[in-house]
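User: Fold this, then the next.

Assistant: Folding the first:
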Amino acid sequence: MKTKSIIIIVFAGILSASCSHKQKEEQRAASTEDLITVTEDQFRTGNLEIGEPVKMIFENVVRCNGSIVAEPSGSARISTPVQGLVKKISCSGGQRVYQGQELFELSGNEFIELQRDLAETASQLKRLKSEYERIKSLYEEKIGTEKELIQAESEFKASNAKFSALKMKIRTLGLDDTKIENGDFYESFSLRSPLNGFITQVNVSIGQYADLQTTLADVFDPGKFRLKLAVFEKDFGSLKENQAIRFNLLGDTGKIFPARLKSIGKNVDELTKTITCFAGIDEPNGSLFVNNAFIEAAIITKNDTVNAVPEESVLRSEGSSYILGFVRNENDNYYLKRTRAETGRLNNGYVEVLNLPAGFKMITKGAYNIRIE
């Protein structure tokens, strides 16, 4: 009887083990049915690779267009304080010039009359000064009248004011006023560059009459170039001073230059719906920069470190994004599982993923060679 009981227990154990093994096999078969199977040959010929998400810095950027312009202190319009005829031109468009260099020579009746007025006023001032001092001395000795003193003082001060104004005008032309006071007049005067830079264009010719409103030439200093940016109104809230900027000349993405946001406008253009902002160029003397050149810029408003995968590893199906997760490799087969991916921003061929843990193994290359449906 005891032997019979032992046989029954052993048989039950064998049956239980057999059922458990069968159940595991059925579960394994069922789970395998949910996986994508790739053979060793398919894996090799499809150039598939297994990897993990990587940590990358992703940027939020505001893209805009603009131009390279000179700062107000880096550009100048050459005009004349005394109207006259252009006698000589010593510059041309595109020419490099230096502060104090002669650009134009002018002459004319107005210039001669200015010198004459200075000489006459200087002579008259000497006489009025002497007369004022004489009458003042007599008044102090109670010989002259107060009326005579007031009149002499008034005439002397009026003449002195006129003389000072004429001297300032002469000195603006870079001429020696003492020489003119003595009757030694100049035949012409020169207009000189107020800064180091380049001539954009010459607007006059020899013999042309130039008045006070005439711009003879424009000069700009490339060392004081900056960016003038047109940022759309919708992006205004993400801008802050000192944000980093990358820019390139229009149509030339092969060369990127750095800049930094310096000022943010407070007015929206009614036609373009943009706000004018200015940025300082890190190296404004770049040989590729020219005045008024158009540029494309990206203002970096935020940096994040995120998990990212190669863009080619993300598959699209029925409006959703998927990644092929690596499950196991056995019997010369690779088993993969289609996993829905929550994706975000793109950056240099990588896409941000929001729902994959660190260490998640997946197909990083060749995923498009596998059918996932």
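Now the next one, as you asked:
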Amino acid sequence: MSDCCCCCPSEPPPPPGGGGDPTQPPRCTRYQVTINSFSVTAIDDGFLGGDLETTWTFVVNGQVRTFIDKDMGVGITPVGITFFVDVPADTSTIVLQVTGVEDDPLFDDDLPGFTHVWGQAQNWGAGAQAGSASDSNITYTLNYQITCAGRSAVSLSRGALLAYAADKAKKRKKVRRVTAATLASWGLERLRRGGWDLVQATDRDYLLKGYGTLPRLIEDKYGEKQT
């Protein structure tokens, strides 16, 4: 006999809009890929002996960065390179390609590399990841991490911004003496191109919002040179 009868209440209708769970956060659309370190377990530089003189190339979704270590030996080698990757659609992927070269006086040797592809099925690789490769020259594991990139708010002192802009202006050709207002404008424009938006400005500080660590690096390098 059925547990219900003609008078049992009917099932509630599904919520409008396809029944999605409104309590779930929206899907991440921008990821941060950080190359943390090499863990090298074996090297062999042939008859020359010693450690390896290496140049590594990392490519993440078309963005290219290089890392040079002229004395790579067994052990942990910190890297600290960061990429930001847009993942606008469910079909988007994050692709990491690693290649390396050993720089020898007579001829260069290609070092082993690898390619990792992360998509929706793997949650775009979010978390701690590692890729390994080996040949007669080297055996290593590359440790990296993929996280959802969130915009952060950072305060940058006016003095640090002006010192940063002045330093960059020195490297331009035919740049004459400029005002503090022009230097501030140049500095903020460079930050804008780096993905940082100006939220608020005072006589002493700028409040910026964006991805990455550029304002912090500027403050660390130029903060002591306040005008």
